[in-house]
Amino acid sequence: MNINGVPYRTIWRSSDGKAVEVIDQTRLPHEFVTVRLENVADVANAIRVMQVRGAPLIGVTAAYGVALAMQRCATDIELTQVCQLLLATRPTAVNLRWALVRMQEKLSGVAESDRNVQAWLEAESIADEDVVINQAIGQHGLALIRAVWSNKLEVVNILTHCNAGWLATVDQGTALAPVYAAHDAGIPVHVWVDETRPRNQGASLTAWELQQHGVPYTLIVDNVGGHLMQHGQVDMVIVGTDRTAANGDVCNKVGTYLKALAAFDNNVPFYVSLPTPTIDWQINDGVKDIPIELRDGDEVTYIHGRTREGELVAVSIAPEGSAVGNYAFDVTPARLVTGLITERGVCAATKHGLAGLYS
C-alpha cells in the first residue's frame, strides 16, 4: 500500500536488524505514526492494545515477537514461555496460535546457537507468504465482483464490516483485496463502510486506507446496512474473519452476524474472505466452541477523536459506573454465508466445500 506515495507494509524488520517496526493503528486516521518494537514485551503490548490488529497481522507480529525473544535468549524454556505469553494476548484470532505453533515447531529442532537466525528467517517467510496469499484472495474475489459488474454494467456496491484490508494483514488485505483488485482492473466499485463500534475500525481504518488507494466509499453507522439492502443499494457483502470453523461457521467483528441476517433476508450475496491459517480444523461448531473475547468496557463508554480545534481527546458517552458488556466478536452460522473466498479458490461454507479445496 502506498501512503503519500511511499510503499509500506504494516510490519517490517528495522534497518538495524534488532527490532521490528509497525504502523500504530490506534493513532489512525488522524496521525500516521510508526512504532519500534524491541522485545517480546513490546510485541505483546502492541497486540493487546491493538496497535496491530487483524487476524493475519496478529499472527505475523507474534512470529516476529518470537524472533525478538530468540535474539536475547534462545533456550527451550524461553521459547515455550514466549509462545505462552503471546498466545494469551488475544483469544479469538486463530492465526496467532497457528503462527506460534509454526515458529515453535521450526525452532525446536534447531540448535540454540542457530535459533536467532532461523527465527528471523521463519518470521519473514510467514510475512511474505501472507502477502502472496492475500493477492490470490484478491484475484478469486475479483472474479465474483466482475460477474456482478458484467450483469449490472454500473457501479458495484459492496458493503464491508470492520477492517479486513491492508491494515489487518501484512499487505493487500482479505475482504478488501478483491475490492482493490477490481478498482485497479478498472471496474467501478463503491464501498459502504460500517463505522464498526465500539473501536470504529471501519471509520478510522477502512475509510482511511480506501481513501489512500482512491476507492470511492461512503461511511455509514452500523445499523444502516439492512436499510440499504432493502432498497437494492448493496450488490454484495464481503467481510473478513478471525476464525473459521471446519463446518464453515465464521467468527468476525461483532455485528457481522446481523449483516449476514439482513443479507439473507434480502437475497444479497454474503462472502467471507480468509487465508488458510484462519481455518480452525479442530472446531466443528463455531457458535458453541469459538472463544469470544470480552474487552475493556472503556472502549464502549468512551469515544476517541479529534476536536474541531485539532486536539485528540477521549469523550465519555455513558453514565458513570454503567455496566458494560464489550463482546468483541460474534459468529455467523455457515448457512448464512454464500461462499468462502480463500487463496485456493471460492467454496461453499460447508465441510464438503472446504474439503474440495483442502484434502
TrEMBL record:
Which pathway does the record list? Answer: Amino-acid biosynthesis; L-methionine biosynthesis via salvage pathway; L-methionine from S-methyl-5-thio-alpha-D-ribose 1-phosphate: step 1/6
* Reaction(s) catalysed by this chain's protein: 5-deoxy-alpha-D-ribose 1-phosphate = 5-deoxy-D-ribulose 1-phosphate; 5-(methylsulfanyl)-alpha-D-ribose 1-phosphate = 5-(methylsulfanyl)-D-ribulose 1-phosphate
Superkingdom field: Bacteria
Query: Recorded E.C. number(s)?
Result: 5.3.1.23
Site (described: Transition state stabilizer): C162
Q: Active site located where? A: D242 (proton donor)
Output the Gene Ontology terms for molecular function.
S-methyl-5-thioribose-1-phosphate isomerase activity
Its GO biological process terms? L-methionine salvage from methylthioadenosine
Task: List ligand-binding residues for substrate.
Answer: R53, G54, A55, R90, Q201, N252, K253
Keywords from the UniProt entry: Amino-acid biosynthesis, Isomerase, Methionine biosynthesis
Q: Does the keyword Coiled coil apply?
A: no
Q: Which Pfam families match?
A: IF-2B (PF01008)
Give a short account of what the protein does: Catalyzes the interconversion of methylthioribose-1-phosphate (MTR-1-P) into methylthioribulose-1-phosphate (MTRu-1-P). Also catalyzes the interconversion of 5-deoxyribose 1-phosphate and 5-deoxyribulose 1-phosphate. Part of a bifunctional DHAP-shunt salvage pathway for SAM by-products.
PANTHER family cross-referenced by the UniProt entry: METHYLTHIORIBOSE-1-PHOSPHATE ISOMERASE
Give the family this protein belongs to, as stated in its UniProt record: Belongs to the EIF-2B alpha/beta/delta subunits family. MtnA subfamily.
Name the chain's protein.
Methylthioribose-1-phosphate isomerase
Q: Which taxonomic lineage does the organism of this UniProt entry have?
A: Bacteria, Pseudomonadati, Pseudomonadota, Betaproteobacteria, Nitrosomonadales
Gene name of the encoded protein: mtnA
